[in-house]
Amino acid sequence: MSINTSKRSWAEPYKMKMVELLKTTTRTNRLNAIRKAGYNTFLLPSEDVYIDLLTDSGTNAMSDRQWSQFMLGDEAYAGSKSYFKLESAIHEYYGYKYIVPTHQGRGAENILSKVMIRKGQFIPGNMYFTTTRVHQELAGGKFVDIIIDEANDPTNLHPFKGNVDIEKLDNLVKKHGADKVAYVSLASNVNMAGGQPFSMENLKALRKYTKIHNIPIIHDMTRVAENAYFIQKREKNYAKKSIREIVKEICSYTDGATMSAKKDALVNIGGFMATNDPHVFEEARNLVVVYEGLHTYGGLAGRDMEAMAVGIKESVDDRHQAARIGQVIYLGEKMESYGVPIVKPIGGHGVFVDAKAFLPHLTQDQFPAQALAAEIYVDSGVRTMERGVVSAGRKPNGENYYPDLELVRFTLPRRVYTQAHMDVVAESVAEVFQKRERIKGLKMVYEPKYLRFFQARFEKL
Ligand code: PM9
């Protein structure tokens, strides 16, 4: 057999130096465990999990360079050297002027929302994110979804389903006035849409519009390098630019950011808020000492800031992103080969199975994605999570949000699992797919007030 040179394989740009042993369990163990967890994968002890695809948040494998910097962490309460290293990495790779470290993304969202939202203001954004929206609402704001319609259709192949529909934004501005808009909340590689990017063209158009109306853009840059990868691969004139250059360009069209460094930036804990506005910075610096810690550590150890500074650099490496997203695409294509309905195009941080198409016999009130995540766990010990009606939660008036997308997310931690693990995962989903008619819905028997998906409990119908 001769080799097809145009289709040579890719491989991870790293090798393993330390491994963590995995535990396997029996089906009976797993049935008991999921029942005990109230059919909520967040309530499973990780000891009972075989392959953990719950989240890509804080679950990354750090590199030897990151671990070595850990030892250099300066644990001074004030003015830590590690803070200055983090600040200079953010300046160099993202370009924002002022930064406030926080313990993780939602710490940054809390402070930013408190500083930038006045009661009664609107926050238009390219699809909600759970923690982001809850902080916007707690600050007295109202989130308005202005993502393009294509994002709500799992089968639509639009290459930039994270794009903002500027007409939707303009309608909001015309109806209420620009003064009633706190800022545009723009997420890169939109999580709830299935890890879908926006294009640079769309961002430039948004920048132009918001400049005219004097509305800031606040960038949820949690997965900015993954978004940059898709721009490089799909957008005209970007094929020859590096991810590093594209990331910096994205940030340059925005006025500030919140970041959960637990994703893109390859650490297990950490985040920050950034801004180019000295007044916003002044207020945020005041508030961080109330909620997080001094402005030179924001709830982090010096060693965490050291690891983050290195992680930021590693995240914009082209080979790293090609392998990271290549693995997600490998898993998605494998699932598709078994006929499993997934969100297309395959996203950046995970494969999102369309639970409505998988379980058409269940209504959304029977929590199909929640039920499917539990079923997959029972089949193989693979832990995934619901991203549908449970995650969407309730409006401030108590009504349920009913999102169009009812998904089970198979989220890939960075640099953690192998291609063989992906095969096991895809085969488990294929097996559950074959028996899909037998899967029953759930009823919610305990519902916490905030971010219910983390702690809600269910029983089988
Ligand atoms: N994302 C995720 O698994 C962890 C919490 S929800 C299961 O996807 C975005 C786009 C995120 C995000 C967290 C946060 C909050 C903000 N924006 O978790 O507080 O995906 O660091 O970040 C999770 P923290």
Features:
461 residues; alpha/beta; Aspartate Aminotransferase, domain 1; Aspartate Aminotransferase, domain 2; five-stranded mixed sheet; three-stranded antiparallel sheet; 39% helix; globular
How many separate domains make up the residues?
2
CATH topology of the largest domain: Aspartate Aminotransferase, domain 2
CATH structural class of the largest domain: Alpha Beta
Major sheet: 5 strands, mixed
Taken as a percent bin, the fraction of beta residues is 5-15%
Name given to the CATH architecture of the largest domain: 3-Layer(aba) Sandwich
- Per CATH, the superfamily of the largest domain is Type I PLP-dependent aspartate aminotransferase-like (Major domain)
**Terminal Cα separation, in Å?**
54 Å
